[in-house]
């Protein structure tokens, strides 16, 4: 297709939008919220809206889902109005957008309206990638990376950061306790921070966190399996209850138990250096070392009994028994008490 | 009584081995069906009415253990219904009706088989439409449903009305391992014909005659496959299958400790996975290529967005198929092990019956010496539990591990106090 005018930017030059902190998003012709973590995107959107409203209280806001987009709609929402009011168009779910959306946005971004802020929420994946690439090339574009916080340290930073913004002080122990209790969901963590600020005075301590969130522990199937294999029946049971209360399905617990016991059995059957063994069995060396430490307390018979109990629990969980949860608890107790026999 | 009941089966019934009584019933029904058609044409009314009472009906349920030849029997029956040679009893095996029906190319015979674990409603709905078509050659419209035990409640009930009252010239033939495996509502609307486990000698004879296997190998394969015709044939013709079987049978002696048992179990499951993969990988690729061609996306590495949903559906289907073929392979291995311990028990009890695994006599005797009959019974129970668990979707590896642990020889000393 012949071009009437030369492109404003050379296509070969790598282009990147200005990265912004979710808590401080500047106004820009186009704002990208990319990444799977919805809570960060929510924060970014509210900070942007607050800023725009401060500039113009008459801000006109349009919310759309990209999946249901019909060709031509964007022109209606984003065209300048008679009185030159500011407007913001928030497009959610661009990762599921169709061709019509991609085409319209690309066309719009070639010459964005000066009074409109276009916000595009894209959770990841290759669909509608073109929108992101075009938008990043727009001068002044802003991108907020909404990546999930994986490490506990990052989550603690997040908690402490929200405390700083709320002008409150919090002990490091308290932050850690809060992450232990609610670390799986960033939104919950943020809500808990707000709640703690509202309910307490002065510096927030670990004691405060325990008072409000003490009963809750986020356990995984592996935590349960570790406790059981190490012989702590009571702790394993408590973790199992916590795990099922926070939505871990029984099948995952069974799988974790089975895989832990399987490692023990395989390592127990072999001699040799842990590094060689790890390679032969397809495990990490630390797994082999840990299994060897555990094996000092496990006899072959006990191991066999434990594996049989877990197999039976798996059958019960899959519907062969009257009560899968009970069967699983029984298996956990059997495993924990088999150790040291 | 027709000749089929007593003498060697002839014509289309030739490959339905060792099933005298069932063949007699089906042959009589085919004769009755022929005279009913003839009466429709306006001749020999009285004779026809009598023959009809002897047994043609519109819905049949053929049951028999896996490998007993249920679908072969169903095809033979379909062929007999379409036999065009009026001078002999139906099922001459020579006319074009017989031959096309046996070969699966007859226009009025539809065979439905599934490679998934369940037959879904979407699968059976087209069958109902087929069943309501008039037979194009004027005889019978035959719909064969293999694996009717895989009908779930929804799909079974979808077929119900059509099985109960099909159009005048439609016949449903359902096949299942056991009457109890079929939905009760379906069962009550069918005439039941049980097949039995054919004698090993009959299976061996079939392998020699049909597949040209030499007598010694045919005898070995029929016995080792415990008269499962399909597996006997595979054992007789596929070296890889014989090696896999030998490996499977070696599992009990390799499981001489808890750790070794777990490792051996892992290998058994892996072998089953590989067997399943070998069986499906090539087909998966061909099917995918064919679909991409049909969608006009040939040659592109990743499917374009517009057709991705269809490609994904195919992949899901293939995954389900792979899953079933893996479970089937594993179940087959467990049946082989059952046969082995059956032999061990035979030796331990000194029973005067032939061994299933005659070729493994040394191994059988070693196991028999090393354990008591009580141990053997416990192991047989463990294998059966594992089979039930596999059918109940328990993680295959875990189920097999729990089973292999029972093969671990008891340590000398007090152990029975558990």
From TrEMBL, chain A:
Residues 1-21 are annotated as: Disordered. Its EC number is 2.7.7.7. One of its GO terms (biological process) is DNA-templated DNA replication. GO terms for cellular component: DNA polymerase III complex. The keyword Nucleotidyltransferase applies. Residues 220-333 form the DNA polymerase III delta subunit-like C-terminal domain. It catalyses: DNA(n) + a 2'-deoxyribonucleoside 5'-triphosphate = DNA(n+1) + diphosphate. It comes from the Bacteria. This is DNA-directed DNA polymerase. It comes from Kineococcus xinjiangensis. InterPro entries: DNA_pol3_clamp-load_cplx_C (IPR008921), DNA_pol3_delta-like_C (IPR048466), DNA_polIII_delta (IPR005790), P-loop_NTPase (IPR027417). Keywords: DNA replication, DNA-directed DNA polymerase, Nucleotidyltransferase, Transferase.
UniProtKB/TrEMBL annotation, chain B:
Transmembrane segments: none annotated. Residues 56-198 form the AAA+ ATPase domain. Residues 313-326 have a biased composition (Basic and acidic residues). GO terms for biological process: DNA-templated DNA replication. The lineage of its organism: Bacteria, Bacillati, Actinomycetota, Actinomycetes, Kineosporiales. Signal peptide: none annotated. Residues 296-326 are annotated as: Disordered. InterPro entries: AAA+_ATPase, DNA_pol_HolB, DNA_Rep/Repair_Clamp_Loader, P-loop_NTPase. Pfam families: DNA_pol3_delta2 (PF13177). NCBIfam families: holB (TIGR00678), PRK07940.1 (NF005926). GO terms for molecular function: 3'-5' exonuclease activity; DNA-directed DNA polymerase activity. This is DNA polymerase-3 subunit delta.
């Amino acid at each position: 297709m012949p071009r009437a005018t030369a492109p404003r930017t050379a296509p070969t030059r790598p282009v990147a939008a200005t990265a912004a902190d979710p808590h401080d998003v500047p106004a820009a012709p186009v704002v990208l919220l990319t990444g799977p973590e919805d809570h960060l995107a929510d924060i970014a959107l509210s900070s942007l809206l607050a800023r725009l409203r401060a500039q113009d209280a008459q801000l006109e806001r349009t919310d759309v889902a990209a999946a249901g987009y019909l060709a031509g709609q964007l022109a209606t929402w984003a065209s300048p109005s008679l009185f030159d009011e500011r407007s913001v168009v928030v497009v959610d779910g661009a990762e599921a957008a169709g061709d019509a959306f991609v085409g319209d946005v690309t066309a719009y971004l070639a010459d964005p309206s000066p009074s409109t802020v276009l916000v595009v929420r894209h959770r990841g994946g290759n669909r509608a990638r073109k929108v992101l690439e075009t938008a990043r090339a727009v001068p002044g574009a802003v991108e907020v990376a909404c990546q999930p916080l994986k490490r506990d340290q990052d989550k603690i930073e997040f908690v402490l950061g929200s405390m700083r913004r709320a002008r409150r002080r919090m002990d490091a122990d308290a932050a850690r306790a809060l992450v232990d209790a609610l670390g799986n969901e960033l939104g919950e963590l943020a809500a808990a921070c707000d709640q703690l600020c509202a309910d307490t005075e002065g510096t927030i301590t670990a004691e405060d966190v325990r008072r409000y969130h003490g009963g809750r522990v986020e356990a995984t199937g592996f935590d349960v399996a570790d406790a059981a294999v190490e012989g702590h029946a009571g702790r394993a049971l408590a973790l199992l209850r916590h795990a099922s209360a926070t939505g871990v399905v029984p099948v995952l617990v069974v799988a974790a138990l089975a895989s832990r016991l399987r490692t023990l059995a395989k390592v127990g059957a072999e001699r040799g250096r842990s590094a060689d063994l790890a390679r032969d069995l397809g495990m990490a060396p630390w797994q082999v070392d840990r299994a060897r430490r555990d094996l000092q307390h496990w006899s072959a018979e006990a191991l066999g009994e434990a594996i049989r109990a877990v197999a039976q629990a798996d059958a019960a969980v899959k519907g062969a028994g009257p009560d899968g949860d009970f069967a699983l608890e029984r298996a956990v107790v059997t495993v924990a008490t088999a150790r040291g026999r | 009584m027709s000749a089929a009941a007593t003498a060697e089966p002839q014509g289309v019934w030739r490959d339905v081995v060792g099933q005298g009584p069932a063949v007699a019933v089906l042959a009589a029904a085919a004769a009755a069906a022929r005279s009913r058609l003839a009466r429709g044409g306006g001749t020999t009314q009285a004779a026809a009415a009598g023959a009809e009472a002897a047994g043609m009906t519109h819905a049949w349920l053929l049951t028999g253990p896996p490998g007993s030849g249920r679908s072969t029997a169903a095809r033979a029956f379909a062929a007999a219904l379409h036999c065009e040679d009026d001078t002999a009893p139906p099922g001459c095996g020579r006319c074009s009706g017989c031959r096309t029906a046996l070969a699966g190319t007859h226009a009025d015979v539809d065979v439905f088989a599934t490679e998934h674990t369940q037959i879904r409603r979407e699968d059976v709905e087209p069958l109902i439409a087929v069943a309501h078509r008039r037979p194009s050659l004027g005889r019978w419209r035959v719909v064969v449903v293999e694996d009717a035990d895989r009908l779930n409640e929804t799909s079974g009930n979808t077929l119900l009305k059509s099985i109960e009252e099909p159009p005048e010239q439609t016949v449903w033939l359902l096949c299942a391992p056991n009457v109890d495996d079929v939905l009760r509502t379906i069962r009550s609307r069918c005439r039941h014909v049980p097949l039995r486990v054919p004698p090993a000698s009959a299976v061996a004879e079939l392998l020699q005659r049909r597949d040209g296997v030499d007598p010694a190998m045919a005898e070995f394969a029929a016995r080792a496959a415990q008269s499962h015709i399909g597996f006997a044939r595979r054992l007789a013709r596929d070296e890889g299958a014989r090696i896999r079987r030998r490996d499977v049978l070696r599992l009990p002696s390799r499981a001489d400790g808890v750790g070794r048992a777990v490792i051996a179990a892992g290998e058994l499951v892996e072998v089953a996975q590989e067997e399943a993969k070998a069986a499906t990988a090539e087909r998966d690729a061909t099917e995918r290529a064919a679909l991409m061609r049909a969608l006009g996306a040939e040659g592109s590495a990743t499917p374009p967005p517009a057709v991705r949903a269809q490609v994904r559906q195919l992949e899901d289907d293939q995954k389900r198929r792979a899953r079933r073929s893996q479970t089937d392979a594993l179940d087959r291995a467990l049946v082989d092990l059952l046969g082995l311990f059956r032999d061990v028990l035979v030796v331990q009890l000194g029973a005067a019956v032939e061994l299933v695994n005659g070729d493994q006599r040394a191994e059988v005797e070693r196991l028999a010496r090393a354990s008591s009959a009580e141990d053997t019974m416990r192991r047989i129970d463990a294998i059966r539990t594992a089979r039930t668990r596999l059918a109940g979707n328990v993680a295959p590896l875990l189920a097999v591990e729990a089973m292999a642990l029972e093969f671990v020889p008891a340590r000398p000393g007090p152990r029975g106090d558990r």
